[in-house]
## 1
Amino acid sequence: MQISIIGVGYVGLVTATCLAELGHNVTCVDVVKEKIDEINRAEPPIYEEGLDDLLKKNIKRNLKATTDLNDAVMGSDISFICVGTPDKSDGSGGVDLKYIKSAAIGIGKILQETKDYHVVTVKSTVPPGTTDSLVIPLLEKYSGKKVDKDFGVCMNPEFLREGKAIHDFMNPDRIVIGESDERAGNVLYELYGGFNCPKLRVSLKTAEMIKYTSNAFLAMKVSFIGEMGNICKNLGIDVYDVANGIGYDSRIGHKFLRAGCGWGGSCFGKDVRAIIAKAREVNCKPVLLEGVIKANEKQPLRMIELLKEKIKSLTGKKVGVLGLAFKPDTDDMRESPVIPIINELLRENAVVYAYDPKAMKNAKMIFGDKIKYMDSAKQVADKSDAILVVTDWDEFKDKSLYVGKVVIDGRRVIEDTKGIDYEGICW
Ligand code: NAD
């Protein structure tokens, strides 16, 4: 099929490259020219395992990138909207839909000129009701055409994990197809025909709600086990044994039960806040969801509390921070637990030495010259009196980094703690 992808961030670029790998002709479009140039040079603008190779293989074959929306959408069978849906800047927790609006207006104008049936597919995470009440009216207004008669609309949420995005796109647990009508859904159903997984066909707003419910549930699991971990620690019980014990229950499962310094990333926080805002709009009081956020806000700062139990004053102390990305295998620092941790260290006048295998560029954009950037975990260890382990990259498992140091482990990275003044966050 001919596919256009609007917005080439984590979701858009992975979707584009994977669909090209599956043999479709894909044109991706973004408003940021540097990204487009990088993609056309086969240099991924983001770090994602396997993306490099896949991009090299497919670019100029059946994948291309452009800043011209017209070039991408005209003549394509399906367009995927993969633009960002960040929080509104007013602190309301609502979603800023300006990128969705501009993509819908742009596609609408092009649909005015097209003759063939086209399916506009929202892949971005949008609050329940958005595709029906915002995207479709804009498409109709700017194309002068009618949904389900002249063009179709689908909502196809994405569930990939950053770091494992290519694997997850190619091996989904399920595919959710929200459809304006059966004809539109059939086009996506055919596109995903080769995927051997359940394919759920639902209404547009059910598809939107599945995505929020999924992220809220996963965030809740992590907040939950963190809280149980805090209780376990004070009771002298190892929360990892407890998590293992409950995980064998098939109703619970082992995943997302690693107690630590909390969840981060571009999605959990914004999506839980968004569904809380939506709930309030429809007169619901989402007390559990509010607790999920509150528990996670407190968790990273436990690292500092534990550090201060060992080192009373942090003023002038050299504190190493290992890990800046919100999880391993990504360079993404959006809502990383490391941000409140480093801010608190700076507030306490500590000198911060930091290292991450992939996220240094992003860290420099956030902290500027407020912290010292090291080239390796060893350099951090050599400089620091105390070390906080915030991301569980494999290279941080090396015990020799920590011997003779005060270490607060936020991710259960260090197994053998002999010779280390060691404290686990929840164990
Ligand atoms: P991102 O911020 O990395 O990328 C969005 C891209 O869209 C940017 O490159 C931006 O320049 C581009 N853009 C904005 N407006 C545009 C326009 N009018 N035309 C063309 N390009 C435009 O975002 P992301 O992390 O890929 O997330 C995209 C959506 O997918 C969000 O709704 C997010 O919640 C959802 N999602 C993200 C993940 C994830 O792991 N990152 C997983 C599942 C779903």
## 2
Amino acid sequence: MDFGTMDSQTERALGAYLGLAVGDALGATVEFMTASEIATTHRVHRDIVGGGWLHLKPGQVTDDTQMSLALGRAMIAWGGWSTRAAADAFLKWMLSMPIDIGHTCRRGIRRYMLDGSLCAHPSDDEAGNGAAMRNLPVVIATLHDPVALEQRSLEQVHITHHHPLSDAATVALAHMTRRLILGDSIEACRKIADDLVARHPQFRYAPWPGLTSGYIVDTVQTVLDAVFTSSSVEDAIVRAVNRGGDADTIGALAGQLAGARYGARLIPARWLRRLDPGVFHAIRGQVPALLALSSQRAT
Ligand code: MN
Ligand code: MN
């Protein structure tokens, strides 16, 4: 895969975004399967072949990547941050009849459609991963402004999700991704994860507790275990998705972190060649535009 010349920070931001998309496309095939069902069917699932419960074409992505692209597109068109522009982008996406949409996302976007409010009511019981999975464009556009990173992450999260564990996980994943894109070590990333665990012990991820649902705690534990115990983008994503459950979202978030760590050039070329070309080009276009928003802000 030829990425031409680009600085290493751009390559890591692109790695995060393409990692998210290939993790989604690979994981969607085995979403809602158990690890043993995956092992029986695929031995190890490591090629983007489509299928799954959504009957995807090879390389097709799902809501995780689509909502990220919708958010990124809105930020670039707006030329900065507007929570309403983000909500409008999610609404437009929902009305486009996407291939899948999570329950909490649908409910939150419907609320916005009906009353125009930008913040979901706080929820005690629902803490899905649907807001954390789409936050990468905010991270890339606030690389040099960690205060804005937290504020805007929470604003986009609250359009559909409003739970302390979803908030905490989204912000922690944002800081981890940011540090990796800036070129910091995986140890800096681990420290952020350990701070998350210190504040919310539910997130303890080592030893891996073994759950893989769309509950943000299960998702984050599986993502962190995959990323911290692997030594390549491929290894991290393969490890993540083969555990099944919410495999596309877990694969997407593992791909986001591992892609930020290793950069776009170290994502397996066979995956990038399979990825939906429209998605590939949209991501290649968004990354420099989002980075430009970030440096605009710093100066
Ligand atoms: Mn999905
Ligand atoms: Mn999913």
